[in-house]
Design a protein that fits this description.
Blueprint: H1 3-13, H2 25-33, H3 45-51, H4 56-69, E1 73-83, H5 93-102, E2 105-116, E3 119-123, E4 156-159, H6 166-177, H7 182-200
Antiparallel strand pairs: 1-2, 1-4, 2-3
Helix pairs in contact: 1-3, 2-4, 3-4
């Protein structure tokens, strides 16, 4: 089954999308954005659809695959950044206190560049809409050609080469950028998943 059809079927089964409507670019964005934030077993699109959770990496690899099946040109972007009081002041107070005490946590963020007509636009579907109430940097809607803000403050931005496996490319960057901080990063991502899940039940 083509990925787009599989994704639509999964969204319908989870009552996220009506079964009498066709997908649009805006609907694709909103559905991927509102997949719960959390680390899946792996970042492959099929796994993200089956488990219905992902971080920025899995969400944007999935969104790229769906957009390209939709006939759009795309570029995956990796951003090296840090979670810390100055760069991510929207984090919950308890997490900010930990980061202030123990230092920033390096991370790799991923987002998408999407070509609509002749214009390229930044698309970031990281944080579900429900987390906007907590102050997370949510992109609330998709307007063709309108830039979205990335959900991080990048220190360095790299294009994923079109011939590269994006998961392997991201894993190499994480290994070099995060290094010995991998456990702290894993704990932080798990805590963010818990916060996002709680926001979704409000």
């Amino acid at each position: 089954m083509p990925l787009l059809a599989d994704f639509r079927a999964a969204a319908i089964a989870r009552t996220r999308f009506p079964d009498d409507q066709r997908l649009s670019e805006a609907a694709l964005f909103a559905l991927v954005r509102d997949i719960p934030f959390g680390r899946p077993t792996d970042e492959h699109p099929e796994t993200v659809i089956a488990e219905w959770r992902a971080t920025s990496i899995g969400k944007h690899i999935l969104l790229q695959a769906l957009a390209e099946e939709f006939g759009l040109h795309t570029m995956l972007i990796c951003a090296l950044h840090e979670f810390g009081p100055q760069t991510t002041p929207w984090l919950p107070a308890a997490l900010l206190a930990d980061l202030a005490a123990d230092g920033p946590v390096p991370d790799l963020h991923m987002f998408l560049r999407l070509k609509i007509a002749d214009d390229w636009m930044t698309v970031d579907a990281t944080w579900p809409l429900a987390t906007a109430a907590l102050g997370f940097p949510v992109n609330e809607r998709f307007d063709a050609g309108r830039e979205m803000r990335p959900a991080c403050d990048p220190d360095e931005v790299l294009h994923v080469p079109p011939e590269a496996d994006p998961i392997e490319f991201a894993e190499r960057l994480i290994a070099s950028h995060v290094g010995a901080q991998s456990e702290r990063r894993a704990r932080l991502l798990a805590a963010l998943a818990d916060v996002a899940a709680a926001a979704n039940t409000r």
